[in-house]
Amino acid sequence: MRAARYYHPEVERMSRKEIRDLQNQRLRWQVRRCLAKSEFYREKFQQAGIKASHIRTVDDLVHAPVVTKQELRDEQVKHPPFGRYTVAPRKDWRELHPSTGTTGTPVNTIWSARDVENITEVTARTMWSFGVRPGDILQNGFSYGLWVAGMSTHYAGERIGCFVIPIGASMTGRQVEYLLNPGSTVLLCTPSFALHIAEYLREKGVSHKQLSLRLGCFGGEGGTETRATRTKIEEGLGIDAFDYYGLAEIAPTFASECTEKAGLHWAEDHYFIEIINPDTLQRCAEGEMGVLVITHLTREATPMIRYWTNDYARYETARCACGRTHARSVGGILGRADDMVIYRGAKFYPVQVEKVVRSYRELGDEFLIEMSREEKSYADVCTVVCECLAGDADRNALEQRLRKDLREELLVTPEIRIVPFGTLERTTFKAKRILDQRPK
């Protein structure tokens, strides 16, 4: 099996018609059980004037209401502790996982025994697609606490036949020790943590050539598919770097790049993917950017029907060069509505600033977007803060170049502040890129 290109070829190479037929069948099952067992969904569908019989195919889902994270929070406050969208009976519950809560009160998500099995299988499929094989030493730097990716990748690593090191998202020095001995071959963590580990290696005088590491997959935040970030990770660790995507309410690790690095592959046998225009609420054409909306087709315990992720992406069904037929989002997650910066009429996302800052050899990997307000004019001020690696660099010339490149990328000119290397906070988890200091 080690030489096999696909983990489940009969699933990963299904025809588009076979995928759609399976989605329609599983969607009908999911809608029927949700309306029969969940007062939360019954109320939403009744308000929209929709019955289970109205949803025959995935095309009919456009008439159903979306579910937002705030709705789930409100539901759990009104009906503690798990809300009324928990469908599976209590005897089938196996694990409880909260969302990270970085943008509000965490949302509790329950996995049934079947959910654990499906999550493990899909994650194993993703890991196989970017090159993980039996016998690999898998250094799992994803969190085993707040962010549930640590659990899914641990289960999947065991399923594949890896030797798993469950270190979690902490202890940079210990991470490097394990990279050296026993010599991990695969690293999983956030892209920010990967860059931090690479930075630590440089500071300690450890060459990536001393490592056995050959690949890594990085999620929990955007950036891996940004060319500048991918290049810094790959050069800093001497590996191939791949993008990972998940979210607690749907699944922790259910979409990844394959070895072609041609976008996130979706597991369409378990999840129905829509890209929705946020203004019209209509589906976008293939290739257009919109908000990612996801429906569980097989989730038992806490199924989501049309979950509004707030993440921006594109969608295309063209077969990947790897031979897999499931749809992809080329470019990965392109931004998040929660992180959008509006400055002087322009709208941009931290990933665009990242693209520019990390393309500079003179600058460190960390950056921060500060929003403040002038006292007299009460005008907003946007400042990009970044670190200079070369102490003798011409700061004025560097600022001018950076300002020009940011203006071209963002269509607006932010203020620039270059600080000494090591000034900005490092993180082993999700990096906070926006600091809003404006009076509330």
CATH fold assignment of the largest domain: Rossmann fold
User: Which structural class is indicated by helix and strand composition?
Assistant: alpha/beta
Largest sheet: 8 strands, mixed
Discrete helix count: 11
Give the termini distance in whole angstroms: 58 Å
As a percent range, the share of strand residues is: 15-25%
Write down the overall mean pLDDT. Answer: 93
Percent range of helical residues: 25-40%
Describe this structure in words.
With 440 residues, this protein is α/β, with parallel strands linked by helices. It folds into two domains: 1-337, ANL, N-terminal domain (Rossmann fold), CATH 3.40.50; 340-436, GMP Synthetase, Chain A, domain 3 (2-Layer Sandwich). The chain is 30% helix and 23% strand. The protein contains eleven helices and 20 strands. The protein has helices spanning 9-12, 16-37, 39-47, 69-78, 113-129, 149-160, 172-180, 191-203, 227-237, 350-357, 395-410; strands at 93-98, 108-112, 137-140, 163-165, 186-189, 215-218, 240-247, 251-256, 264-266, 271-276, 290-296, 307-313, 328-329, 335-336, 341-343, 346-348, 363-373, 380-388, 415-420, 434-436. The chain has an eight-stranded mixed sheet with strand order 4-3-5-6-7-8-9-13, sandwiched between helices. The protein has a four-stranded antiparallel sheet with strand order 10-11-12-14. Strands 19-18-17-20 form a four-stranded mixed sheet. Strand 6 (215-218), helix 9 and strand 7 (240-247) form a beta-alpha-beta unit. The radius of gyration is 22 Å and the shape is globular. The termini are far apart.
